[in-house]
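Hi team, as promised in this morning's meeting, here are the two structures we talked about. I've kept the exact order from the run log so nobody has to guess. The first one is mostly here for context; it's the second one we should focus on when we meet again. Sequence first, then the predicted structure tokens.
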Amino acid sequence: MKDIYTLFRHSLAGLRVLVALTLLLGLAYPLAITGIAQVAFPWKADGSLVTATGQHTDHAGDAVGSKLIGQVVDDEDLFQNRPSAAGDGYDMLSTYGSNLGPNNPDLVASIKDLKAAIAEREGVDPSDVPPDAVTASASGIDPDISPAYAEIQVPRVAEVNGLTDDQVQQLVDENTDGRDLGVLGEPRVNVLELNIAVVQAADAS
């Protein structure tokens, strides 16, 4: 009888701990962090949504994407994003990298084909195509490209949008973020924000 009472007492104590931790970590903590984020980082707490502008879009005033998540660029007149291994078209429900080693025959062939296609599209030598233009990021939904990949796209984007190379290069520079805290990561260009800036500039020209 004593053993049953001890088992019941221990089980009840464990249940109390479970309920307490569930309320603390499953409810109170997420609510507190969400509240802090809303106050301290309101632009990120809501997903860092980006709004469309310009006469050349049917979605002016609407949220067209997030600064934090890459997406397929259907308009060939704009800057193109890096390839994605996350399902079909930057699927946020299946974020992952290709998981292929650098010597994998499929990856090697894919990089070769992409380099040739991008070099032809941008009118450059395949050796000038930067690595991020032909490889997916680890998450598969990277919204940024390297300044080098943006720069080889400048002449094409400028020509088809009736802008000068200098105008488009200035837009690239304005939408380039440096290293986090000055030391972490690499400089990067947000493709969605850059393309919206291009559309605005084309409308104004």
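And here is the second protein, the one for discussion:
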Amino acid sequence: MDLMINGVTHSVEAEADTPLLWVIRDVLGMTGTKYGCGVAQCGACTVLVDGQAMRSCVTPAESVVGLPITTIEAVEQDPVGRRVVEAWVASQVPQCGYCQSGQVMAATALLQQTPKPTDDDIAGAMTNLCRCGTYNAIAAAVRQAAAQG
């Protein structure tokens, strides 16, 4: 199957129901997208599919054929993604950092769809889990990235 990931079409050999996460990590070697829970609860595996935040651990690869997929490796190619990463760094959001690629992807999707989000918008969109509890710093970074837009 052909998958368009980060602007490049990749022909991959995988079963149709193989989770997109495993195609990204194991077949293509892009390890920025993390495995967390495997049941779409934590969000460590979040990627953008046609601009929408999607949990790649439960997304069959075949279901996204023909759709543009963005991973953390290419998020800064988008101006919104670049602002989010800059805000993350400036706010020193990560502690352990494991969930942060998924957090950045979710924040990027939010700001692409809602450039000036309210605190309720941020709370509603930023549902990824962070075991270190950096939620206040995450929300602050999202607000900072929105203000720079």
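Starting points for discussion:
Residues 47 and 105 are 6 Å apart (CA to CA).
The radius of gyration is 15 Å.
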